[in-house]
Amino acid sequence: MSDNRNSICISSLSARRTPVSACRKGSVTVEAALAVPIFFLAVVSLLYLMEIMAVRTTVRAGLQAAGKQAMQDACSVTAVTPSGLERNVVRAIGEERLERSIVEGGASGLNCEGSYMSPVTGIGKLFVKYEIRLPIPVFMVPPVSYEESMKIKAWTGYEKEAFGDKKEETVYITETGVVYHKDYHCTYLELSIRMVQASKTASLRNNSGGKYYPCERCAQGNSEGVYITDNGDRYHHSLTCSGLKRTIYAISISEAAGKGACSRCGG
Ligand SMILES: [Zn+2]
Ligand SMILES: [Zn+2]
Hints:
binds zinc ion, alpha/beta
C-alpha cells in the first residue's frame, strides 16, 4: 500500500516536474511561432508601404501628363471633362500597371470628378481620387482613400496676375512685333484689312513706307483683289490666311525685355 503511495507520489512529482521543462521548450516554440509571422507581417507591411508610395507617385505622374495634355488642348476646347481626364491618366500610367496594382477597381478605379478649368483665367484644378485596398487576411480593413491634386495653367498665353502676386504692368505684344504696346486698343495692334487691286500692290506703301510682297502662306492665286493691312508688308489672296490673323499676347513688362515701346502708345 505504502509502496504504491510512494510510487504515486514519485510519479506525481515527476509529473509535476515534467511540465516545467516542457514549458521552457514550449515558450521558445511559442516565441518562434509568433516571431516568424510578425517578421513576415513587418516585411509585407513594408512592401505594401513601398507599393502605396509607388502607386501615389505613378498616379501623380499620370495626372501631370494628362493635365499637360488637357492644357495643351485648352486652346481649342476650354473645358476639362473628368471622363476625358481619367482616360488620359489611365493611358499615361498604363492600363496594365493599374489592373495589377493595389488600386481598388484597377484601371476604372480612378475618379477625376471635380476637376475643372476656369475659362477666364485658364487655370485648371485637377483631382484624381482612388482607393487602395490592403489585403490583410484577418482584419477586414476598409480601402484607404487617396487623392492627388494639381493646379495647372492652360497654354493660352499669359494672364495678368494668374500666378504669384507680383503687381507688374501688363503690356501687349504680337507674335512678330518688335515693340510692346501699353494700350490694348493701340491702332498698331488693330488689323486694318482692306482689299486692293492686285495690280496696284507694287505702288502701295504701308504705314512705315514699306512695299507689299506676296504672302508665302496663302496660295498664289490669280484673283483680282488682294488683302493688305496698313502695318503689314504682305498682300494676301485669301482672307482666311493665317498671316492676316493676329494673336496678341498680354505679358508683364519685365518679360518684354528687349522690345522697345510702341511709338504711338508706349510713351
Ligand atoms: Zn502701340
Ligand atoms: Zn497670306
